[in-house]
Design brief:
The complex is a heterodimer of chains A (380) and B (249). With 380 residues, chain A is of the alpha+beta class. Chain A is 53% helix and 14% strand. Chain A folds into 3 domains: 7-115, Acyl-CoA dehydrogenase/oxidase, N-terminal domain (Butyryl-Coa Dehydrogenase, subunit A, domain 1), CATH 1.10.540.10; 121-229, Butyryl-CoA Dehydrogenase, subunit A, domain 2, CATH 2.40.110; 233-379, Up-down Bundle (Butyryl-CoA Dehydrogenase, subunit A, domain 3), CATH 1.20.140.10. In chain A, a hairpin with a 2-residue loop joins strand 8 (269-270) and strand 9 (273-274). The longest helix of chain A has 37 residues, at 231-267. Chain A starts with 6 loop residues before the first helix and ends with a helix. With 249 residues, chain B is α/β, with parallel strands linked by helices. Chain B has a single domain (2-221), classed as HUPs (Rossmann fold), CATH 3.40.50. In chain B, 27% of the residues lie in helices and 27% in strands. Chain B has helices at 37-52, 71-80, 95-109, 128-136, 190-196, 235-245, and strands at residues 2-6, 9-11, 19-20, 25-26, 33-35, 59-65, 84-88, 113-117, 140-150, 153-160, 163-168, 173-177, 201-204. Chain B is globular and about 65 Å long. The chains are: A alpha+beta (380), B alpha/beta (249). At the A-B interface, helix 1 of A face helix 2 and helix 5 of B.
């Protein structure tokens, strides 16, 4: 076993930290408050190569491992997880999905501009009545010979407006249930696609979330990923990896809040001494540190398994479940340590607490992770 | 045109400074090492010039006097965008010997522009650039805050009291740069980080040179006393404190 990061991994961690502190921190509170998408910062993210960082260099990517990605996600999400989620969706779901299951022609047309950051991606699975129950897709992709005709509505779609490339999960053969589902690559500017208003969210408010309506949208047959009916398996396989990204994001939210609480506890005085000298605060910090360390280890383990081409679905579910849950716990305690200051926006921890909540919900709720984990352990 | 940037390996600027061996040695235990910030800005400017003047700059080399432990710092310089690196395999003990070692390599390699940060943020000696100029018999300009190639001419600016002066210079020369030479140090991109390990890092054995100075002991400055807050209404108290306690008015 080796817990030591390589020179490159440390450099990536530092680069992500420097980027987040220099480019995201100064306006993160304002962007959160006014739900402003970080357009300028995203240009710099692209220049730095965080989009496509794990993709094969032959498609214009960085060729890095999942550990590097986890390190970058943690550092960026410490400051602004709205940016973290753009990275996560594009890297883990869209890019990985097309690179792993796409045809050479799909890779040339769609993967290359995604891997170089020229384009952003969005993953359209959730529906008004199909979130955790992803088999109940009401969006239809009717087989019309040489194209599919898409109709339906997708909800809570991250990057819906800023993305150019969608992967849409839709039902082609309702009678076959989940085996009749297809995954289609769809250009956002295809006629018949309309967006709902920007969602007014509790947290991650500067990420770009909308519902997306499809009204007789024609999608060429060659845009289907994998065999006919592969869509549900595709979505599940893709989300296995996506959970590592969200775990790392939740880890970043937790460690960002912890770092702020630690610093504050050494500065703020009460009863004649810095509050970190009070056991009630010191013990909170100890508990937070242990949770974060555990979370990081689970996250790294899942990333490592993926890099070793070993099964990682259960490990990524465990990492996502634990990181999200401790992100909620740690951020709540960080607000508590800050007291009244923590409840106002200037100290960041209330925002991190709001952001943490989403990590327990999207890319599989904590309850869905428990289904995945319990089924695996019961099967033995 | 070839550019050389001299880089020092220094403790991160947020390091808690401690001394050991009866206050004669800086305690490196747990220290994070970085490129000296002024050197990093010099490197950033060198890369900007190379990018903005296609073909004008053949390559950018970074050079460091240090043991193998400094290689991660050198690799970071390569990740940021230097093309190659030279490490002179010696422990940097004082400015004279560091400048001497650098000069020995530069005499053989030949560079047109040699950039040094104005000082390193560890011992703040601010001497290597000047000494290097003397050893090489090259002209040098200190406190350079702007450097560019304009109409194939090198144009430099240095700040002077109340303004700045514009200087043109022949090559080879030594530019001792200060803050302002580049806006921010460049963050290495992912491609740069992956390419850094494949870029050449040449290790050169040092020549024999004596050290003329040694550290006798270090002292921490006295801790700052607590800040006193005076009610904005209470001007009398403020004047009293400034007059009788701070003794500034």
């Amino acid at each position: 076993m080796n817990f030591k990061l390589t020179e490159e991994q440390k450099m990536i961690q530092q680069a992500a930290k420097d980027f987040a502190e220099r480019e995201l921190l100064h306006d993160v509170i304002e962007r959160d408050e006014k739900s402003i998408y970080p357009t300028e910062a995203m240009k710099k993210i692209v220049d730095l190569g965080f989009i496509g960082m794990m993709t094969d260099p032959k498609w214009g990517g960085g060729g890095m491992d999942t550990i590097c990605y986890v390190l970058a996600m943690e550092e960026i999400s410490k400051i602004d997880s709205s940016v973290g989620v753009v990275l996560s969706v594009t890297n883990s779901l869209i890019i990985w999905g097309i690179e792993t299951y796409g045809t050479e022609a799909q890779k040339e047309k769609y993967l290359r501009p995604l891997a170089t950051g020229e384009k952003i991606g969005a993953f359209l699975l959730s529906e008004p009545e199909a979130g955790s129950d992803a088999t109940s897709q009401h969006t239809t992709a009717e087989d019309k010979g040489d194209y599919y005709l898409l109709n339906g509505t997708k909800n809570w779609i991250t990057n819906a407006n800023c993305a150019s490339t969608y992967i849409v999960i839709a039902q082609t053969y309702p009678e076959k249930k989940h085996k009749g589902i297809n995954a289609l690559i769809v250009d956002k500017n295809t006629p018949g696609i309309t967006l709902g208003p920007h969602e007014n969210k509790m947290g991650m408010r500067s990420s770009d979330t909308h519902s997306v309506m499809f009204n007789d949208v024609k999608v060429p047959k060659e845009n289907r990923i994998g065999e006919n009916g592969f869509g549900f398996t595709f979505a599940m396989k893709t989300l296995d990896g996506g959970r590592i990204g969200i775990a790392a994001q939740a880890l970043g939210i937790a460690s960002g809040a912890f770092e702020r609480a630690l610093k504050y506890s050494k500065e703020r005085k009460a009863f004649g001494t810095e509050i970190c000298n009070h056991q009630s605060i010191a013990f909170k910090l100890a508990d937070m540190a242990v949770k974060i360390e555990n979370a990081r280890n689970l996250c790294f383990k899942a990333a490592w398994l993926k890099d070793q081409h070993l099964p990682y679905a259960v490990a990524s579910s465990m990492a996502k479940l634990y990181c999200a849950d401790i992100a909620m716990e740690v951020t709540t305690e960080a607000v508590q340590i800050h007291g009244g200051y923590g409840y106002v926006k200037d100290y960041h921890v209330e925002r991190l607490m709001r952001e943490a909540k989403l990590t327990q919900i999207y890319e599989g709720t904590s309850e869905v992770q428990k289904i995945v984990i319990s089924r695996a352990i019961l099967k033995g | 045109m070839k550019i050389l940037v001299c880089i020092s390996n220094v403790p991160d600027t947020t390091t808690k400074i401690k001394f050991v061996n009866n206050n004669t040695t800086f305690d490196i235990n747990g220290v994070q090492w970085i490129i000296n910030p002024w050197d990093e800005l010099a490197l950033t400017r060198a890369i900007e010039i190379k990018e903005a003047n296609a073909g004008a700059v053949e390559n950018i080399t970074v050079i460091n006097v240090g043991l193998k432990t400094t290689e991660p710092t050198i690799r970071k310089a390569l990740a940021i965008g230097a093309d190659k690196a030279i490490r002179i395999n010696a422990e940097p003990k004082e400015a004279y010997s560091v400048a001497f070692q650098l000069a020995e390599v530069i005499k053989k390699e030949k560079f047109d522009i040699i950039l040094c940060g104005i000082e390193s943020c560890d011992y703040n000696g601010a001497s290597v650039g000047g000494m290097l100029s003397e050893f090489l018999d090259y002209p040098s300009i200190s406190a350079v805050s702007f450097l560019n190639i304009e109409n194939r001419q090198l144009k430099l600016k240095r700040e002077i009291d109340g303004g700045y002066e514009v200087i043109s210079i022949i090559t080879p020369f030594i530019g001792i740069v200060q803050k302002g030479i580049a806006k921010d140090a460049r963050i290495p991109n992912m491609r740069g980080i992956m390419m850094a390990k494949t870029k050449p890092l040449q290790v050169v054995e040092p020549v024999q040179v004596d050290n003329y100075t040694e550290f006798v002991s270090f002292f921490h400055p006295k801790p700052k006393t607590a800040c006193k807050k005076v009610d904005p209404e209470n001007v009398k108290e403020l004047v009293n404190l400034l007059h009788n306690e701070a003794k500034v008015v």
